[in-house]
Design brief:
The structure holds 2 protein chains of 2 kinds.
Chain A lengths: L4 H22 L7 H32 L11 E8 L5 H12 L5 E7 L6 H10 L2 E6 L21 H14 L6 E5 L4 E2 L2 H7 L5 E3 L2 E2 L6 E7 L2 E6 L15 E4 H6 L14 H6 L9 E2 L23 E2 L4 E5 L2 E5 L10
Parallel strand pairs in A: 1-2, 1-4, 2-3, 6-11
Antiparallel strand pairs in A: 4-10, 5-12, 6-10, 7-8, 8-9, 13-14
Chain B lengths: L36 E8 L5 H12 L5 E7 L6 H10 L2 E6 L21 H14 L8 E5 L5 E2 L1 H7 L5 E3 L2 E2 L6 E6 L5 E5 L15 E4 H6 L15 H6 L8 E3 L1 H4 L4 E2 L24
Parallel strand pairs in B: 1-2, 1-4, 2-3, 6-11
Antiparallel strand pairs in B: 4-10, 5-12, 6-10, 7-8, 8-9
Helix pairs in contact in B: 1-2
Classes of the chains: A alpha/beta, B alpha/beta.
Main location (chain B): membrane
GO molecular function (chain B): galactosylgalactosylxylosylprotein 3-beta-glucuronosyltransferase activity; metal ion binding
Subcellular location (chain B): Endomembrane system; Golgi apparatus membrane
């Protein structure tokens, strides 16, 4: 059959015109794209959220994954021993501690619960923290526990737990491993600089502590780079009139002196001394925070004493006194009987 | 992230360690161009625990990407303590100050009262935001009022980041309960408040329990915290009523089933041994 070129053109022309008409008719029709836009935007938000979650996960894993063998110069590991016990604010305390510790390189958190079992709250918190940790538990014997009505200074707190942590270190670490042990109670605040300073501890290092002993701060007195006494107002005749947060001990010293531990029966305020006196003498203490001497610059660049940023903060508890609600200043925030 | 040079550790015993001059702290994750910014407004005032509180807040915020900290001091002048802390922290920050009139001041010796505190400071923070950003091209972001004595989980910030208008979630230890929480219907809308203290408040929620998108803040320049005639517990409502209605709230934290923020409070430290004339050296910044 002969196909005329003219017919081909006509068909082509007609098809094009029809197509064009159809397209033109589609213009101006309402098109509901908002649904697509919203879902696309949600999708993007979802993805962004996932990305930021993954990024923080990566960061956490990086902190955890880095061991001393990956460092150029192996940094001594800082072991922070934290006794803890169940009470309302426990989770909040541990959460914010973990947020601080995540910034510290080569860090190992030893958390010891005053409990017959490992609680789910602490187990989950540690697992999600992104930190290297050891989770222990031991229950303070009943006679040693504070009763509800006892003031919090009546019986020593956290003793069994800290001793258990020391035992764990002695059973699981070698003399060859470099490390520093620090007792970090769960209600204090720690500056990041503190950890830089204590890492170089050879025996026992000491520094000022803020807001303890009824003072704005307590500190060791230093002359010519050696500790010669202590600046404190409360029981200054103690062998080591310091707060638990004011010193750190080299791991090797603890491993070499396997019997050194806290004495449960120590008189009030003597807990720190009960451990330290078997480890070191005052002359051997290593002062930190710029020897606590170079402070008196007129304009007050108090940076050198900025390390007094370990302080004991306690909780205001809102308790019902009889049938009335009243504010009671937090006495006994570390009641181990709870 | 690098710490101080390990070569400075002393080699021989008996020699005082060299003074470490430069500390390089943790830095926050790099700023992203696409992630919405979280503006944190923190009122603060001078008292012994101030530095500790701001330190631990900084330690928390250093983990959060795209965070801008607006610290407003209740003070006639910006103090050195806060200035130095902010500069060294490594965070993006804005440092403001406005002094509360004497009647509203929260000084160290007063028992906490129900007078609204931090109001002027928070309003100044809002004012700065409105001054700094163009209403016609608002940045993507959210505003959160974070008091300096609370505890915040890192998850909280990711929950609030994508707030469209006002998002809400439970707060532990608020209103005399283990936690206060919005009541969320199965459809995912806020329908009430699971609280004991004055449940008839328009927004029975703690300052730490909500966040507002920047866009909304800029759209409603008249929305501020009110000072006059505000009963205890109504501060939050005085702002939120000008921004949103209950059904416009976005519940977060898995439909308000998780606690991601704790209304912790810090006890005043016992400084009895300072005596009347002071004992410890005042030149030491604590």
């Amino acid at each position: 059959m002969k196909v005329k070129l003219k017919n081909v053109f006509v068909v082509y022309f007609l098809v094009s015109v029809i197509g064009l008409m159809y397209a033109l008719l589609q213009l101006g029709q309402p098109c509901d794209c908002s649904q697509h836009l919203r879902s696309a935007s949600d999708l993007m938000h979802g993805k962004d959220k996932k990305i930021s979650q993954l990024l923080s996960e990566v960061k956490r894993l990086q902190v955890r994954g880095k061991g001393p063998e990956l460092e150029g110069q192996a940094l001594p590991i800082i072991y922070a021993i934290t006794p803890t016990y169940a009470r309302l604010v426990q989770k909040a305390e541990l959460v914010r501690m973990s947020q601080t510790f995540l910034h510290v390189k080569n860090f190992h958190w030893i958390v010891v619960e005053d409990s017959p079992v490992k609680t789910q709250l602490v187990s989950e918190l540690l697992a999600q923290s992104g930190l290297r940790f050891t989770h222990l538990h031991t229950e303070t014997p009943k006679e040693q526990k504070l009763k509800e009505s006892d003031p919090n200074w009546l019986k020593p707190r956290g003793v069994e737990q800290r001793n258990l942590a020391l035992q764990w270190l002695r059973e699981n670490r070698e003399l060859s491993e470099e490390g520093v042990v620090y007792f970090a109670d769960d209600d204090n605040t720690y500056s990041l600089r503190l950890f830089d300073e204590i890492r170089s501890t050879k025996r026992v290092s000491v520094w000022p502590v803020g807001l303890v002993g009824g003072l704005r701060f307590e500190r060791p007195l230093v002359e010519k780079g050696r500790v010669v006494g202590f600046y404190t107002a409360w029981k200054p005749n103690r062998p080591f009139p310091m707060d638990m947060a004011g010193f750190a001990i080299a791991l090797q010293l603890l491993l070499a002196n396997r019997e050194a531990r806290f004495d449960m029966l120590a008189e009030r305020g003597y807990l720190e001394s009960s451990l330290l006196q078997s480890l070191v003498s005052i002359e051997e203490l290593e002062p930190r925070a710029d020897n606590c001497t170079k402070v008196r610059r007129g304009t007050g660049s108090q940076d050198s004493w900025v390390l007094s940023m370990v302080l004991g903060v306690q909780w205001i508890k809102w308790v019902r006194a009889g049938d009335q609600d009243s504010w009671v200043l937090g006495v006994g925030n570390m009641k181990f009987c709870l | 992230i690098t710490l101080s040079n390990p070569h400075l550790w002393q080699q021989a015993s008996g020699v005082a360690p060299k003074v470490i001059q430069n500390y390089v702290y943790s830095r926050p994750p790099p700023w992203s161009d696409t992630l919405p910014t979280i503006f944190i407004i923190t009122p603060t005032y001078t008292r012994p625990v101030q530095k500790a509180e701001l330190t631990r807040l900084a330690n928390t915020f250093l983990h959060v990407q795209n965070l801008h900290w607006v610290v407003v001091e209740d003070s006639p002048r910006r103090t050195n303590l806060v200035s130095n802390l902010l500069e060294k922290a490594g965070l993006n920050f804005t440092h403001l100050n406005v002094e509360s009139p004497q009647s509203l001041k929260m000084n160290g010796s007063r028992i906490p009262s129900h007078k609204p505190r931090g109001t002027l400071q928070r309003n100044l923070g809002l004012h700065w935001l409105r001054d700094s950003f163009n209403k016609t091209q608002p940045p993507e972001g959210v505003v959160y009022f974070a008091d300096d004595d609370n505890t915040y989980s890192l998850e909280l910030f990711e929950e609030m980041r994508y707030t469209r208008r006002v998002s809400v979630w439970p707060v532990a230890f608020a209103g005399g309960l283990r936690y206060e929480s919005p009541i969320v219907s199965p459809a995912g809308k806020v329908v009430g408040w699971k609280v004991v203290f004055d449940p008839n408040r328009p927004f029975a929620i703690d300052m730490a329990g909500f966040a507002v998108s920047i866009r909304l803040i800029l759209e409603r320049p008249q929305a501020t915290f009110k000072l006059e005639g505000i009963k205890g517990g109504y501060q939050e409502s005085s702002l939120l009523k000008d921004l949103v209605t209950m059904d416009g709230l976005e519940p977060k934290a898995a439909n308000c089933t998780k606690v991601l923020v704790w209304h912790t409070r810090t006890e005043r430290p016992m400084l009895g041994n300072e005596g009347k004339h002071g004992f410890s050296d005042l030149r030491m910044e604590v």
